[in-house]
Amino acid sequence: MTPISEPRSGFGVQLPVAFDPRWNRIPGIGVHGTTITVEPERYFFRFESPTWLLCDWRIVTDELLLAEETSQAAVEQLALDVVKEYGFSTSDAGLVLSTAWDVYGNLFRDEHLPALGLPQVTAEHLRMLREAATFMALNKVELDGHISNVGPCGFFPAATSVVFDLSEEEADTLDRVGTWFHEYHRIESIKAHAALGGRLVHGHSGVACIPYGASMETFRAELADFRQEWLAKVYACRVT
Q: Which of 145, 150, 181, 207 allows an S-S link to 215, with CB 3.0 to 4.6 Å?
């Protein structure tokens, strides 16, 4: 995967698979086969901090994915230890996208479908989740809970309904499937999100990977304050 990055003026990455071209409906996103580009001024509702905390995915797979929690060390502590030891700050937003693709390609695997017990959910729906979550990783929350970067893909039901022509009910089902993965594969999810420097948090239809120790109260309050404004901007991208 080849990052192509200039965070303030534009960035992108070449991924192993092509994304759905309907992502071009979201202002600032460009999908050209396997090449994904993002124009920050058009994509983000707020873009204050062009750096992100990451861990190398190979280190996470080698050091953490096979590790077992014990009575002395919960899985969250194991993940935090990896972030503390191997985490690094980067301004390479293309690397954020490629790392997120690795994370969500691992989490939303087709082999999990039978356990869902939802025959209406297919491998195509998991592909939608993988793609939306990859863009979601560009969001950023600071330790004080302030949302410094936020774009349309932080709002899963809204963004997926616009991009994939889903009804409100279908988009909500897709969001619940994503939540199911993070609940029933909680340990796997916690470990994998160490590569994105934190843990996944849902709140008021918004989703973000948030650093350990961040103020949840501030995050949820700020999201609630701006939720309707940001959701309206996402739904305005709908093709009629």
A: 145
What is the three-state SS of 65-81? Answer: CCCCCCCCCCHHHHHHH
Amino acid at residue number 30: G
Residue 100 main-chain phi, psi, to 5 deg: -60, -40
Task: Give the Cα separation of 117 and 101 in Å (integer).
Answer: 25
Interatomic CA distance for residues 129 and 76, integer angstroms: 24
216 beta partners = none
Domain coordinates of the chain in residue numbers?
A: 46-235
Which token pair is 73?
């060390």
Residue with tokens 């309050």: 221
Per-10-residue mean pLDDT, the chain, length 240: 58 94 96 95 95 97 92 93 96 95 93 80 91 95 96 91 90 79 80 95 78 94 91 89
